[in-house]
What we know:
Order of helices and strands: HHEHHEEHE
CATH class: Alpha Beta
CATH architecture: Alpha-Beta Complex
Shape: globular
Number of domains: 1
Helix content: 40-55%
Radius of gyration: 14 Å
Largest sheet: 4 strands, mixed
Mean pLDDT: 95
Strand order of the largest sheet: 1-4-2-3
Distance between the termini: 39 Å
CATH topology: Conserved hypothetical protein from pyrococcus furiosus pfu- 392566-001, ParB domain
Strand content: 15-25%
Low-confidence stretches: none
Amino acid sequence: MISVTWKDHPEEHDYPAAADYLELLAEPEVVDAVVAELRDAPIVHKKAKDLLRAAGLELLGAENPHVRRDLIKINNGTALSPILLVRGDFRTGVPMVIADGYHRVCAIHWADENIEIPAKIAALR
Length: 125
């Protein structure tokens, strides 16, 4: 079994990165509220395979430079940052959004799809 080291909290730069992506999907005031909720959210653990399914995203190839960088970090025992998520709604067909950490999710999936990834989840209101 592959061992992955995780940081206790997302890196500070992950929040603006999440906001930058989310601004493509929602108005600034909505993004501000979601990022504030992410900052306060507790860490939960979810499997890589379930995260990709819930987001409706393709698994990026191991040759992707960002995925490869994270695979190297895993192999070197370098701690990875937890990911930031926005909850979807299966009742209305809204997928979950990986606001920050898509490449990390893909790298973990390549290492072992059943590894649980620490994440913070906010609701889109």
